[in-house]
Design a protein that fits this description.
This protein is α/β, with parallel strands linked by helices. It has twelve helices and 16 strands. Helix 2 packs across helix 10, helix 2 crosses helix 11 and helix 10 (318-332) packs antiparallel against helix 12 (351-361). This is Phosphate-binding protein. Residues 28-60 are annotated as: Disordered.
Length: 365
């Protein structure tokens, strides 16, 4: 588990560094802010709430960036975030142990029945990389795979890197006679749910499992959290797994995913194109902005993570309410999204989506 805490002291050091560097960056995040922001050296607001969050490990770097920017302008407040996984974050939120949650999947109907009115807003958009440890195929040297091939690899049907199905889409590549070692998440993970949902939608004849946060197949190797997944792939030659692309290092390679007759490596821009082509879910409301992903958009990278921040609409403590509201407003702001993109390689949300998100966050009281 990664626990990140920010308070007035760390915020002041960030503000001082920003002033010395004369970067001219913006900062916002007061409870009354909107999509516009104020200068990072502006006087601190009167927010004093001490708020706690927990959830998706994929959001870890983005949360760090949001905390730094928000607290530079709100030095009387404090924020902490425990990157324990999406499922753990939602459980703590429902139990009242934290004030907000980060989750790579939206709340289920069963979970929503256990809490009063909530908001769910997509503030972290990132490609899910299919990452592997195969010598000679790192960096920009991608191995191409169709959706069916990816499904067969992860279901255990394809077991060698030089299998005919992989070779057919990588003409001229010298694929090694190397066993494939499938790596999955050991914890309840929204990334797992997003990845298995993709497989079930695009390769239903091969992948016959439900989209779940728990990996559905026994055996193989596993890693706890995003960092554990990456460490396990690094440690086993021939390994393949799935992770938020921002965490994949240059030591590993990534699959160029097939769609509409072409193969696309991941990028924040290609992930954004997938979200732009997607529709709101049938269960979406003005305060629960959740998506059904379009996995066949032209020129897009189809395996993406739409990660949500989840908060109550009503809090018993007015200081907590104001600070949660201000923090989410900062995360949704243009500055907050840029900070997350620079820290984690995520795709900033569009202006149109930002307007919807800020309207939802505005209902917090």
């Amino acid at each position: 588990m990664l626990l990140t805490r920010r308070s007035a002291i760390s915020a002041l050091s960030v503000a001082a560094l920003a002033t010395l560097a004369a970067c001219g960056s913006d900062a916002g995040g007061s409870s009354s802010s909107s999509s516009s922001s104020t200068d990072s050296a502006a006087p601190a607001t009167d927010l004093t709430g001490q708020i706690k969050g927990a959830g998706a490990s994929s959001q870890g770097d983005a949360q760090d960036a949001w905390m730094n920017g928000f607290l530079a302008a709100n030095s009387g407040a404090s924020v902490e975030y425990a990157a324990e996984g999406s499922g753990a974050g939602r459980e703590k939120f429902i139990a009242g142990a934290v004030d907000f949650a980060g989750s790579d999947s939206s709340m289920s109907e069963e979970e929503l029945a256990k809490v009063d009115a909530v908001i769910e807003v997509p503030l972290y958009i990132s490609p899910i990389a299919v990452a592997y440890n195969v010598p000679g195929f790192t960096g920009e040297t991608h191995i191409n795979m169709t959706p069916d091939t990816i499904a067969k690899v992860f279901s255990g049907t394809i077991t060698k890197w030089n299998d005919a199905a992989i070779a057919a889409d990588n003409e001229g590549a010298e694929l090694p006679d190397l066993d494939i070692v499938v790596v999955h998440r050991s914890d309840e993970s929204g990334t797992t749910k997003n990845f298995t949902k993709y497989l079930g939608k695009v390769a239903a004849d091969v992948w016959t499992y439900e989209a779940e946060e728990t990996w559905p197949i026994e055996g193989g190797q596993s890693g706890d959290g995003t960092s554990g997944m990456i460490a396990t792939i690094k440690g086993a030659e021939g390994a393949i797994g799935y992770a938020d692309a921002s965490k994949v290092t240059d030591e590993l390679g990534t699959v160029a995913v097939g769609a509409n007759g072409s193969f696309s490596p991941y990028s924040a821009e290609a992930a954004a194109a997938t979200l732009d082509a997607s529709e709101l879910s049938d269960k979406a409301t003005d305060t629960q902005i959740v998506y059904d992903i379009n996995y066949t958009a032209e020129g897009a990278y189809p395996i993406i993570l739409v990660s949500y921040l989840i908060a109550h609409q009503k809090y018993d403590d007015a200081d907590i309410a104001a600070t949660v509201k201000g923090y989410l407003e900062y995360a949704a702001s243009e500055e907050g999204q840029t900070a997350a993109s620079e820290a984690a390689g995520s795709a900033p949300i569009s202006d149109g989506l930002r307007e919807k998100v800020l309207a939802a966050v505005g209902t917090i009281a």
